[in-house]
């Protein structure tokens, strides 16, 4: 007796998902802004592009990331914060972790879990940023079990 066709198809789909690369699911064409960019400009970019983070670059290197949460928690919630004068440098998160475009999707998801981050910049072999991978991108491509575990880990209280 053979294995039912639907089981074979499900196994093939699972194996294909495991073999997926970051470049297959990432958001391509991401730009960065300078650390001296005003927070008000960053907020407008986020609204215009319906995104929650903006990479920060200087001297041709990724130096940080500003998220909508950074603007609120490190900026607006601070007593001395002046939104009219604040720049990316004032609220950005430094020491950004990345993944490579040719990494396995499962590896990138594990990295997101370990770091408890919702987004990772993606670099190529030349260490140039070529995109960002987010939980939203992953949700369209990974297995339900893998996604559930990643979301659970990333969403745990820090």
TrEMBL record:
UniProtKB keywords: CBS domain
PROSITE patterns, A to Z: CBS
Top-rank taxon: Bacteria
Keyword Iron-sulfur assigned: no
Gene3D superfamilies from the UniProt entry: CBS-domain
Stored CDD domains: CBS_pair_HRP1_like
Start and end residues of each CBS domain: 26-81, 92-149
Region listing for Disordered, in residue ranges: 139-158
Membrane-traversing stretches: none
Pfam families: CBS (PF00571)
Designated name of the protein: CBS domain-containing protein
Source species: Bradyrhizobium yuanmingense
Taxon lineage: Bacteria, Pseudomonadati, Pseudomonadota, Alphaproteobacteria, Hyphomicrobiales
């Amino acid at each position: 007796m053979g294995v039912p066709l639907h089981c074979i198809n499900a196994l093939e789909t699972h194996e294909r998902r495991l073999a997926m690369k970051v470049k297959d699911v990432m958001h391509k064409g991401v730009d960065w802004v300078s650390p001296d960019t005003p927070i008000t400009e960053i907020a407008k970019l986020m609204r215009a592009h319906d995104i929650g983070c903006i990479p920060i670059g200087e001297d041709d290197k990724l130096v940080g990331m500003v998220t909508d949460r950074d603007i609120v928690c490190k900026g607006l919630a601070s007593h001395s914060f002046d939104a009219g004068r604040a720049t990316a440098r004032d609220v950005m998160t430094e020491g950004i972790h990345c993944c490579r475009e040719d990494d396995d999707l499962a590896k990138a998801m594990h990295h997101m879990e370990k770091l408890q981050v919702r987004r990772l910049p993606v670099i190529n072999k030349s260490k140039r940023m070529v995109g960002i991978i987010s939980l939203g991108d992953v949700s369209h491509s990974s297995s339900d079990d893998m996604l559930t575990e990643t979301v659970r880990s990333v969403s745990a209280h820090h």
